[in-house]
């Protein structure tokens, strides 16, 4: 038989090598699968070449789309095992049916070898580039792609070229540049109009000085051209100043879409946003869009983004684990983790030992029985019951893990056990453990990473407990089949064995009842009724009870004469039923006592009894051990969560943020994998091809079924809706026409300045559909729901992606005002999401903040985050307006925006506290005194005069009615030269100089409500410089006055 199978395998490989273009597209594979099923269903000769070829292709395709193997670790197993992986795929299940059975039992079967050969074959296909990027050993970082020097070196013309290239291509790509940059004369004229209109030169200088000297240097990464031009320059208004400033911001804005992702990746700026899921999703979107900008094909950009995010995710895992290893190991929770891990490993060893010994005992029993009964029929085939690759010591103890589970407690402690290490006596073991020096923290971090995997998927999407449950069930079925086989051959011997087994169980049960009563008497306050219950159970197994069964049997035979045919068997089964009934009640009593005493975790004598008995169900006692293991693994998970919350809150959040968007990008990568064509001239499936295969028949079921299997293997996604997959495929294929034609002439490509934007739009639309279509199954409702409903952070991906695309689009078409507006919306939405998140969990956040070890650092970096957002909010509109200004009036209007707008006097009448630069326009009446040598005598007089003072105003609201009052300190008064002069100096001309306008003073104002007017009183001092006989003379002047006028704020410096 084995020789025939080897011949068959050899023939299969020869045929496989001849398959042209094998599995280069889902379309072809679906048609092939449907054809293979047709051949196998109608085959009359299993050994003919057509059947062999159909079998090999079917097995290879099913393995490939299940992604059940990678590299050299091929997982084949039985046909039933392969079908089990498609159990939640109704389309493929419906195609295969129950009648199609393929025997692939050998460990090195033709299916396994086929999978290897198939894997080598498809690795050369075009669509495998997607998988190369998705599972690359080295992730492609967007930082590498976004490095401007690297880009320039690799591409002749970047998407946003430097100014020199812009001048050459202005006619094609920059509609605004055709009109020319605003002339210097227009800028100067605009400045003059502004200065003459409002006289606020100093305000503008101050504003621009802060912009260029204080705040922009904090964001040099975004505005390097501006900083290179104006760093350490004591600037003033010159003919070209505004033109140079505009040009610098223009160049930097054009490259902003390249530099922004670099800022996202800077911990100094965005460490807090990286721990926010909304911001993390923005990083994912921007990384994808940026890779597309630099001509990475869309089918490679999506998986490359996923791989980059996965590597970031892996690094965050390491960061969390190292932080726990360094800071948490002395805590009580960490010591509990070590103890629980030690317990779990011991439980795992015990369960494995019991199941493995049971399997060995069954095999030995069959061999002994065959020796005794040489003419017995063929025994049950062990491979039909226990042919599972997971039931293996290497698998269960982590063969693929660098350090196995046996070392887990030692790793968590941070040091290896000397006695335990004696078993490692190979050169490879030495190199693994001692080839590189490791610190205790590194050992602990390795142990924490291993512990994190215990309660999740361990092997082939199953947990350790699930593997044990399946193994126990398979061994039970194998034991029952073996018992039936032995009974058919030796019925008398089977009856004797059953009687011996029954007697052993009876004795053990009687002993367990006595010891269990003693156990609970010591561990708890056993009630009087519970004690009587134990006594009653013991009496039900008394010898008199079984004697009565024997005495009553002849009476039962009178009523049922058939009993006389096998009276001994009848008595035996009556006694066995009695024992089972007592055992059932015994278990219920023990569980009741455990429920009443939750602090008791030690195994009772009943549980120990169950661990040793096999009468009711073979190996049923193992289930109790597996349940205890599950509980232990769950406790490990809870302890790890607690430690992360106490010692690594922010890194753990950043790690967890990656999971939802990782699922989405992996789904998108596999979707593109499924929609690729095998035609080198035509990269994607067409509408016509899709309509042809979606015909409602077997080919459609194969197409959607394989697509469903491929996408559902994404970790954590689960079953997918086949109907919505069809919609997703059709909508995605429809949008493929948005992508630039790679076969287009270079001249057309050069003029297509928005080609990258169409690729980015396609990718973002595809991601949004994956999030918004009801694709994934909801275990609670039993319905399909959108993927975004599983994570709140994913709900904001669609609106955020729209703003991100708008930002890049408006930059590309040189509409800088809208570009800045979109960017501010993106950042303010991030800031708002952080604030809302903190408000929703304010109390918890404050408690965690106290416990966080890096509070001061986090606050510092949070401030930088807010600084970045505040900068764009404060200066973004000015920068965009300066670049987009097209006339002197536009410049004048822009500079007007720097000052407070008309109506700003209302601010001080509504705000509790304001500080502002202020001017006033009005009149004063008061007493003035002049003194000086130039006067014949000192003069005291009343005067009425206009006033236009400028100074600093401190304003606030006071009283129950919250009236507004201001304290004004003036420095100059433009109206002072028009004051009334006394008779003695009327003929003297006042010198119109700045010195005559210097009038320091102080005033107290009452700001009249709902108006710009004020009234007040004040004092002012200021010398008058006059020319008498061609000599400068100084006359001292001071005034006390009442004033009334209009409030003219120049610039609000502070507002509470």
Summarize the structure.
The chain has 1056 residues and is of the alpha+beta class. Helix content is 60%, strand content 10%.
Question: Which tags fit this structure?
Answer:
6-stranded antiparallel beta barrel; 12 strands; 1056 residues; disordered N terminus; elongated; 10% strand; alpha+beta; two-stranded antiparallel ribbon
Helix content: 55-70%
Lateral arrangement of strands in the main beta sheet: 5-7-8-9-10-12
Strand residue percentage: 5-15%
Shape: elongated
Q: Total number of β-strand segments? A: 12
Question: What would you call the structural class?
Answer: alpha+beta
Radius of gyration: 42 Å
Per DSSP, the total helix count is 44
Uncertain stretches of 5 or more adjacent residues: 1-22, 69-76, 104-109, 139-203, 832-862
User: On the 0-100 scale, what is the average pLDDT?
Assistant: 72
- Main beta-sheet strand count, sense and barrel state: 6 strands, antiparallel, barrel
Cα distance spanning the termini: 91 Å
């Amino acid at each position: 038989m084995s020789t025939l199978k080897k011949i068959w395998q050899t023939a299969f490989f020869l045929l496989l090598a001849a398959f042209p273009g094998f599995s280069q597209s889902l379309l072809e594979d679906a048609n092939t699968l449907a054809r293979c099923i047709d051949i196998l269903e109608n085959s009359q000769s299993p050994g003919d070449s057509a059947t062999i070829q159909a079998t090999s292709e079917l097995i290879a395709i099913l393995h490939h789309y299940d992604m059940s193997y990678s590299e050299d670790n091929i997982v084949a197993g039985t046909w039933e095992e392969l079908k089990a992986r498609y159990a939640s795929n109704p389309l493929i299940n419906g195609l295969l049916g129950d009648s199609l059975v393929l025997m692939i039992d050998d460990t090195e079967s033709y299916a396994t070898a086929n999978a290897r050969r198939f894997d080598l074959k498809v690795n050369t296909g075009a669509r495998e580039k997607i998988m190369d990027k998705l599972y690359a050993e080295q992730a492609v970082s967007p930082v590498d792609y976004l490095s401007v020097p690297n880009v320039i070196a690799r591409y002749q013309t970047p998407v946003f070229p430097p100014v020199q290239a812009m001048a050459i291509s202005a006619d094609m790509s920059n509609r605004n540049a055709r009109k020319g940059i605003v002339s210097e004369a227009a800028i100067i004229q605009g400045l003059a109009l502004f200065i003459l209109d409002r006289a606020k030169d100093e305000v503008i200088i101050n504003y621009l000085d802060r912009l260029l000297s204080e705040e922009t240097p904090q964001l040099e990464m975004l505005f390097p051209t501006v900083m290179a031009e104006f760093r350490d320059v004591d600037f003033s208004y010159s003919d070209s100043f505004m033109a140079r400033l505009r040009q610098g911001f223009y160049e930097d804005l054009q490259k902003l879409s390249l530099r922004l992702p670099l800022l996202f990746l800077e911990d100094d700026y965005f460490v807090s946003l990286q721990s926010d899921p909304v911001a993390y999703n923005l990083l994912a979107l921007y990384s994808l869009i940026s890779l597309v900008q630099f001509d990475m094909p869309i089918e490679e950009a999506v998986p490359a983004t996923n791989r980059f995010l996965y590597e970031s995710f892996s690094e965050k895992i390491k960061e969390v684990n190292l932080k726990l290893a360094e800071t948490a190991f002395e805590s009580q929770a960490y010591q509990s983790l070590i103890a629980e891990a030690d317990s779990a490993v011991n439980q795992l060893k015990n369960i494995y030992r019991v199941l493995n010994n049971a399997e060995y005992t069954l095999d030995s029993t069959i061999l002994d029985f065959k020796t005794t009964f040489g003419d017995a029929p063929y025994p049950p085939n062990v491979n039909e019951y226990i042919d599972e690759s997971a039931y293996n010591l290497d698998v269960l103890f982590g063969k693929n893990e660098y350090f196995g589970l046996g070392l887990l407690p030692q790793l968590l402690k941070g040091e290896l056990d000397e006695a335990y290490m004696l078993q490692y006596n190979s050169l490879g073991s030495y190199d693994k453990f001692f080839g590189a020096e490791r610190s205790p923290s590194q050992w602990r971090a390795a142990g924490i990473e291993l512990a994190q995997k215990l309660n999740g998927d361990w092997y082939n999407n199953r947990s350790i407990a699930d593997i044990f449950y399946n193994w126990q069930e398979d061994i039970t079925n194998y034991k029952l089949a073996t018992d039936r086989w032995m009974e058919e051959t030796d019925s008398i011997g089977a009856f004797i064995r059953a009687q011996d087994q029954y007697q052993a169980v009876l004795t053990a049960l009687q002993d367990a009842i006595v010891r269990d009563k003693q156990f609970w008497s010591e561990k708890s306050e056993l009630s009087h009724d519970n004690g009587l219950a134990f006594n009653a159970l013991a009496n039900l197994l008394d010898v008199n009870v079984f004697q009565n069964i024997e005495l009553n049997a002849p009476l039962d035979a009178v009523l049922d004469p058939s009993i006389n045919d096998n009276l001994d068997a009848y008595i035996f089964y009556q006694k066995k039923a009695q024992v089972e009934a007592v055992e059932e009640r015994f278990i219920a009593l023990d569980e009741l006592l455990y429920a009443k005493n939750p602090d008791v975790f030690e195994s009772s004598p009943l549980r120990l009894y169950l661990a040793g008995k096999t009468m009711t169900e073979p190996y049923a006692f193992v289930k109790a051990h597996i349940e205890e293991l599950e509980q232990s693994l769950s406790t490990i998970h809870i302890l790890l969560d607690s430690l992360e919350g106490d010692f690594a809150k922010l890194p753990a959040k950043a790690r967890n943020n990656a999971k939802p968007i990782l699922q989405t990008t992996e789904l998108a990568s596999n979707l593109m994998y499924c929609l690729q064509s095998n035609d080198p001239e035509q990269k994607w499936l067409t509408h016509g091809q899709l309509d042809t295969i979606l015909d409602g028949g077997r080919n459609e079921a194969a197409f959607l079924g394989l697509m469903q299997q491929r996408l559902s293997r994404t970790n954590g996604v689960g079953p997918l809706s086949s109907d919505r997959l069809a919609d997703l495929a059709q909508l995605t294929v429809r949008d493929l026409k948005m992508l630039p034609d790679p076969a287009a002439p270079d001249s057309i490509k050069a003029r297509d300045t928005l080609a990258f934007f169409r690729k980015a739009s396609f990718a973002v639309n595809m991601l949004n559909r994956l999030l918004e279509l009801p694709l994934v199954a909801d275990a609670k409702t039993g319905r399909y729901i959108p993927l975004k409903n599983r994570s709140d952070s994913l709900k904001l991906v669609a609106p955020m992606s729209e703003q991100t695309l708008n930002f890049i689009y408006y930059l590309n078409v040189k509409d800088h005002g809208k570009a800045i507006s979109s960017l501010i919306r993106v950042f303010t939405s991030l800031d708002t999401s952080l604030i809302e998140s903190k408000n929703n969990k304010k109390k918890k956040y404050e408690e965690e903040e106290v416990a966080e070890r890096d509070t001061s650092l986090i606050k510092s970096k949070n401030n930088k985050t807010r600084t970045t957002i505040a900068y764009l909010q404060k200066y973004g509109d000015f920068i965009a307006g300066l670049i987009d200004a097209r006339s002197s009036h536009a410049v004048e209007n822009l500079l007007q925006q720097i000052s407070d707008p008309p109506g700003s006097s209302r601010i001080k009448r509504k705000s509790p506290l304001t500080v502002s630069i202020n001017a006033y326009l009005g009149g004063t009446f008061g007493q003035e005194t002049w003194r000086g040598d130039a006067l014949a005598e000192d003069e005291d007089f009343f005067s009425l005069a206009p006033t236009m003072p400028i100074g600093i105003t401190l304003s606030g609201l006071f009283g129950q009615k919250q009236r507004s009052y201001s304290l004004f300190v003036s420095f100059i008064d433009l109206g002072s030269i028009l004051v009334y002069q006394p008779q003695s100096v009327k003929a003297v001309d006042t010198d119109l100089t700045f010195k005559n306008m210097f009038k320091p003073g102080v005033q107290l104002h009452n700001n009249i409500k709902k108006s710009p007017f004020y009234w007040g009183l004040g004092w002012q001092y200021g010398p008058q410089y006059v020319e008498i006989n061609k000599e400068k003379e100084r006359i001292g002047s001071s005034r006390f006055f009442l004033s009334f006028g209009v409030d003219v704020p120049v610039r609000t410096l502070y507002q509470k």
